[in-house]
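Objective 1b: paired records.
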Amino acid sequence: MITAATPRLPLHGADGLPPLVRRARPHDAPALYALSLAFIRSGALRPRSIDHYLAHAGEFLLTTGRGRTSALGCLALSDEGDGAAVLYNFCVARGNQGQGLGAALLRAALAEARHRLVREVFTATTSGAAFFRRHGFVPPHPGRAPATWAAALDPARGSEVLSRRL
């Protein structure tokens, strides 16, 4: 007997509607910067200038609530070569956390990584290890992380490096 799978209910944003995830464009740089500032100030994100968001807008995905234009969350995916990519600058506005926006961003980033034929995705987190572990991330084998990226991590931040094979 063949049965149809039960459709998954959409994740909802603060407005009760499913979130919209899209690739950021250069004109989104001020919104990405503004969204990230609170996390930079708290130490959860590394400091980046608005120029970084402008120059690397194409690496970012952002989420908004349906029918809204303001960025509620963002996540960047950087191709590091040799089948590896890095997720960075992952944040969801404080009043919108716990509503599935981060999960929607992560799913979109992993889908993009698969599309780019990435074999393993890495991230470093100071506080989100449980979230990433729920989504299949584990500590990588020593020496697997992209060398240039790993060398740029600040040991004083106490980041946990995690990876997920695709």
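Objective 1b, second protein:
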Amino acid sequence: MAIFVFAESHEGKYKKAGLEAVSYAKVTADLSGDTVTAIVFGDSPADELYKYGASKVLKIQNDVLNKFDANSYAKALAEVAQGDIIILPSTNEGATIAPVLAYKTGASLVTNVEKAPSSVSPFTVARKSFSGKGIETVSVTGKIVITILQNSFGIKESQVSGTEEVASISVTDSDVKVKVISTDLASSNKIDLKEADIVVSAGRGMKGPENWGIIEDLASVLGAATASSKPVADVGWRPHAEHVGQTGKAIAPKLYIAIGISGAIQHLAGVNGSKTIVVINNDPEAPFFKSADYGIIGDAFDVVPKLTEELKKFKG
């Protein structure tokens, strides 16, 4: 039976997390000898999904679904995803749909998965637990809904030939439980913080919001997203959409640069999936240095502008 995956997109373009979920589905399908069917809301191109291993693309086109609603999206997915394994990215949308979808399909729910399963019969996989402080191995039989941590598994090309068709669903206005009235931009980032390969983050060591220019300059040179610690968001120096940590967004970029952040356990819980961590802090006893791959002991107002200038020269 085919493995189904929600290939999340926005305005006709697939999200990085959506392609990562398709890549994960393909590896899982190879282990079980199955095929991958990708489900798309809208009319994003199917060819791109063939490149990552989807041999069939089902497109759901319904005006009711033009605005996101977890219940109506889950109902649509439940109607077309007639398989034992349904995979979603752990984005805001994916993580909101997953439990509703599991309920509607009578499936078990496994969240925060970052590695391929070690077995598919029964389905056995490791997942992050306790806000990323632990790794839990679970074994599931029967139907299963899985969410894949962003930037954890990676995007892997696996070209196949495929087909596409428009799926028929019965979703109506009565299925919409939450209606979006308006959407406001809550972050200065041009790219999704959870999908960013590089993140430049700062904390109370910046002393005030008026000093954030050097953080944004460094991020601009690196093509990075900006983030902040919880105390900074709480006092309004930065929007809460940029808050990373246990009570904020959990991220796993290739490079995480922490500037003026002490490194409390609550913050580490949201960034410990980062491949490389660089810490800049003037306190040599800052806890963050114990978790860092590279550390610079120094004044951020001296170190960061110099680092930015050197990167400009290097890129030039």
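The CA atoms of residues 67 and 182 lie 10 Å apart. The chain has two domains: 3-175, 193-315.
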